[in-house]
Amino acid sequence: MRVLIGAEAPLEEIYAVPREPWLRVNMVSTLDGAATGSDGRSGSINDPLDREVFTTLRALADAVIVGAGTARAEDYGPADVPLVLVSRKAAVPPRLRDLAPGRVLMATVSESDGLDRARELLGEENVLVCGRHRVDLRLLRGKLVARGWNSLLAEGGPHLLRDLLDQGVADELCATIVPRVVAGDQLRIAAGAPVDVPLRLTSLLEQDGTLLGRWLTS
């Protein structure tokens, strides 16, 4: 384990992937475990250091995977890399409907009522059917790697993180812990049916009380 206090290395080096293909998840929480503020958005609890990590991880990624509900709640707009939305409903958030073809993909299921509409909005080649009733995230990962996207970044939300861990798809969890306590009943960074996935800490960086950790699943 490397413990980095005020590390001199650039974040691009600290967060370099050890091999490809690689799928990491990036999440932020408060000291008391809240994944969002009272407004239901992670943007209300993060800080400048977490935003710097967010930007760095996106720059290192070939594509970003995010739950459609999180994209809607966090008001996602266009990104420098393709956005892959995960939704059993196949609902495309309004801000992501009119981008250039291939900038937004939808991962959904064959039984989705929104399948035809998603194909109309994004193009049939950009709607990935991964299962019948539940999105098979391992299948999704394989489809994205087949497109040449070997460095994959997932940005939540909590239910997607839980499912990525449960299905054994995530290689790494990047977790920022900000020095705040907010109470309330907000979700933790993982939510849903119980899982028990051991993780191995590989590095920890502290700056002004904010902790930046990298945990591996194997």
Low-confidence stretches: none
- Helix share bin: 10-25%
Tell me the β content: 25-35%
Per the CATH scheme, the topology name of the largest domain is Dihydrofolate Reductase, subunit A
Number of strands: 10
Average pLDDT, rounded to a whole number, is: 94
State the domain count. 2
Order of helices and strands: EHEHEHEEHEHEHEEE
Summed up, the helix count is 6
Distance between the terminal alpha carbons, to the nearest Å? 14 Å
- Estimated structural class: alpha/beta
Q: CATH-wise, what's the superfamily of the largest domain?
A: Dihydrofolate Reductase, subunit A
Strand order of the largest sheet: 1-9-10-8-2-7-3-4-5-6
Largest sheet: 10 strands, mixed
What does the model show?
With 218 residues, the chain is an alpha/beta fold. It has 2 domains: 20-60 and 170-218, Dihydrofolate Reductase, subunit A (3-Layer(aba) Sandwich); 63-149, no CATH class. Helix content is 23%, strand content 26%. It contains 6 helices and 10 strands. It has helices at 11-14, 48-60, 68-73, 115-122, 137-146, 158-166, and strands at residues 2-5, 22-30, 63-67, 83-86, 104-108, 127-129, 151-154, 172-178, 200-207, 210-216. The protein has a 10-stranded mixed sheet, with helices on both faces. It is globular and about 50 Å long. The mean pLDDT is 94.
